[in-house]
Each structure stands twice: as structure tokens, then as C-alpha cells.
Specification:
By secondary structure, the chain is mostly helical. It folds into 2 domains: about 400 residues, no CATH class; about 80 residues, no CATH class. It has 22 helices and 6 strands. The strands form 2 sheets. A 4-stranded mixed beta sheet has the order 4-3-5-6. A two-stranded antiparallel sheet has the order 1-2. The longest helix has 28 residues. It is globular.
Amino acid sequence: MRPSRPAVRALLALSGAALLVGWIWSRAAPCGGWENSVFGFRLWNESDPGGYYVPSAHELGRWRGRLLYPGHPGLTLQVLLRALQETYFRLRAPAGASLGFTAFTAKNIVSVFLLSKMMIASLHVLSFWLFLPFARRLLSSEFASLLAVLGYATSLPVVYYLTRVSVEPLMVVFFLAAFLCVWRCGEDLECGRPRRAILDGALSGAAAAGALATKFHLLWPLPAVCLLHLWWGDGARRQRGRGPAVIGFIAGASASFAWYCRILDWRDFFAYWDVGGAGGLTVLGGLAALVRGAARLPLGELLPARTRSGLFLFCEWPLLAAAAYGLFLEVRRPDAPWGRWFWLALAGSYTVLIWAYRCFAVSGDFHGFHYLFVFILLASVFFGRACDAFIARLPFTARWQRAAAAALFVAVSHAMVLAAARDAYAYDAAQYARIRAFGSALAAARAGERVGLVGRVGAPVSVLLGLGVLRDSQPRRSALIDAVDGSFIAGNAGSGPTVEIFEAGGMKSARRRGE
């Protein structure tokens, strides 16, 4: 089911726009350690979680599977970040220079963050290309599928996390790939291609295991859901010949998971979460905590508003309202693929349950919309269906007229999303301007030179640049963080550039001497 040329051109335009916006935003604020702000309300720290993944990826394999940041576990992202750092070192390190891998990465830490952010933007773009065939297999119209992609690409979770070094886009890529391969496996069996069905089954298993290793607490059930989906098919009756494909799925998932186990010590991973307060949590205990938290949360927190809790609904109520109408239209459609939707709903509902637990039982507010990527992905399919039905009623016949109407509809629906994103990134750019001198001085220093610091900084430079290691139980030294901090020295004793600290508007800022 190849996309048409107009669909490819639309995706290329969307991809180019996303990468361009990502480059502009990343250049304005590549790294740092301040709290992000949207409409004056604080959300997360800029260094969370990118400031933990970057140094942990640098140390990948050094501690024999005991990562500096086990995370969620974010293992697949750390592998990609490590590959990115090594590639950058091999391409950019001067021939014959005395700088090693760690020293070079520390010297160019701002560029490493910038490249990491652009890699994240590229993974989001990849998810757009996978989402089109995914939506096409659920909807009866390619135009509706394109509208679904556009709705998802302009949603608050995607726009806000477009360049943040986090696992969410990779999680979505694995989620989409796992279901696409399951569905293609069924198509292979229907068309009499058993060998290809085994291959697609193995690819689905590998993708499902990759999703588990990317964000464990949200997608650990995905391998089981996809395996059951492959066995039962799209309906209530099993299709003949699925046995070898199921064996291929198990083999692909097992091989993929075994490879991840070579990198991550799972006992250390669960010990990390035990320290984080999640150890010993039972299903009944979690549900009880969810109910108790929901009873304590004021009803006003549920309303869409320009607040920390109401931001998501404030920005996304048009998409959710359109998605509800799209669901109504799909229910009335005689050939709707409800067999596929059952398994998707099963996987998606679990992620929403975890989001609800986080909101009601942990944080006490609704600002954790990064847990809703899978939910907004599925809601965007129905959003595309509703937009298609709306545009079909307009007196437009030319293709360009329908395309313009679609773009306008999505732009109006997500006007608040774009406003929130612009506000957030403008704030980040202003915060980074205060610490830009640290990164530029590092990059300007020659091999062996140290940057002088004049004035009281108040924190290690690595913290100001957004680096950190979350190891509550057994803190370990990070060679990358030590190299960054060791590149600076107090006073005028530095042999390279000098950074001066000064007060501006009641806040400390930095500037290079002579600027």
C-alpha cells in the first residue's frame, strides 16, 4: 500500500517544516538546566531527561550493564546517542590531535546537544512517515490518513517534545512498526507469502521488544499484545498458517530482548525504581492510590485552562472533540476494522491508566502529557476521519483547495498548541542566552587550555549546561561531566578564554571577556 505522489509531497513538506523549526529552536537553546515555562507556569527542567541520557550514553558499557541512568530504561535512545557521539568524534576530531573521545565531547558539548536534538526531531519525522500507512490501514481514505498525520504532528506532545532529548519519538516509532508488521504479516498470509509472513512476524517481535526497552513502564505489555494480535488475527477467528509467523515473532522478540540484556543490567534497573519509590507497588495498591488521589484532586483541575494542569486540555480540546466525532463516524462505518482497533485500544488504554496513576497518585496535577503520546496518536486517527468528513461537505473540487482547507482546519484546531510552543521555546532561548558564554568558551579553547571563571558561579558548569546523573543508590562518576567541569578554573588562571559572571535583572549571567 504505497502512498501516492501527492501524499509523499505532503509528507516531505511536513518533514522539512518540522526539521527547520527543530533546527531554529535547537540553535536558540541547545542545552541548560532551567525550569521550562509555558504561559508562566513551570513544567519540567530543561535537563530532564536529556541531561541524564547524554552522559549515560557516553559511558555506555563502561559499568558492565549498570548504566549511569537506567531511566525507563531509554536503552535504545542511549545506543543511538552513543553512536551519534562516536560518529561526530570520528568526523570532526582533528587528525593527530591529542584530544580523546571524552575530552572532545566535553569541549563540544553544546554541539553534541544540538546534534542530539536534531536526531530527536528526525525520529519524530520518521514517526510521521510510519503513521501514514498505519492510519491508512485503519481508515478508508488516504486524504483522511494525511489529516491524521498532520493532526498528530501539530499536537502538544509532539510540538513540545520536538527537540527535547527524550525517548517519546522512538517509543512511537517502535509502537507503529510493531503493529504495521503484524498487519502486514496477516496480509502476507492472505496473499500466500508464508516466508515473508515469518519475516514480518520476526520484525514485529523485534519492534515490540524495542518498545519495551525504550519506555518500560508504558510499553512492557506491547510484546504480549502484538503476539496475541498475530495469533488471533483481525477478527475472532484465527487464520490458517499463523503458527510459523508466531514462532518468527517469538524468535525476533527474544533475540532483540537478549541483545538489550547485554547492555542493561535489569536487576540494577529495578533497584533504581525501588529507590525511586516505585518498588513493591502492586496492582491493587496502585489502583487504590489512584482512587485516593482522584478523590483529593479539585474538580477545577480537570478544566481546560492556561494553567499547569489544564494546559493539555486547553490546547487539545479541538482535536479531542473532532476525534470524538470521528469515532462516531467510524462506528457507523460497516467495514471499520474493529478487530485491529481492539488490540490498539488494549495497548493504548494501559498507557492512559499509567498516565492517570501518575497524575492522581504521584504528581497531583495533569501536566504529564508526555505519557499521552500513544493516546494522542490513536485519537489523531479519528481526528483525520472527522476532518475528512468536514472538508468533503465544503464546495471544493480542486485538490489544492482541499489541501488548503485541510491546512487551515488543522492550524485553527491547534492554534493554542502553536502559541504554547512558541511561548515555551522563547523562554528557553532567553534562559540559554544567560549561559551561552560557557559553551562558546569551551569550544574556543585550544587543546590543553582551561577556561578561566571570574566571579561566583554558584553551581558546577556541567549543571548550568544541563548535565546530570540520576543515581540515588550508588552514585558513580561520569567521565564526561568531570571533563566539562575540569575544563574550567576559578580566577584568571585559565590559559584559554575567560568567562565573567555578572548580575542582570537580579539573575546571574555569563559573558566572555572582550565581548
